[in-house]
């Protein structure tokens, strides 16, 4: 049996220096011509019914190209988590927890 083992031993972080000096590019560092940015408004309420969503104030903001709600994406289902793949990406009638 081999004597080689990494358990209980410090391992050198070969990526530490570029990360601490700012050499590494993160996703937020990438800018492309015509690129748009998105913002998500999450619910400040838990177990709440959505009576209506007024988007007029957001639509008036400078630089806003679109404000999207669940009404704009009927039937589109998506999730990065396979177990939630049949869930709608935007809340339509209710939210279950703060931050949904």
TrEMBL record:
Aldehyde oxidase/xanthine dehydrogenase a/b hammerhead domain: residues covered: 21-100
Q: Which UniProt keywords apply?
A: Molybdenum, Oxidoreductase
Q: Does the keyword Secreted apply?
A: no
Question: What would be one Pfam family of this protein?
Answer: Ald_Xan_dh_C
Q: Which GO terms describe its molecular function?
A: iron ion binding; oxidoreductase activity
- The name this protein carries in UniProt is Aldehyde oxidase/xanthine dehydrogenase a/b hammerhead domain-containing protein
Organism phylogeny: unclassified sequences, metagenomes, ecological metagenomes
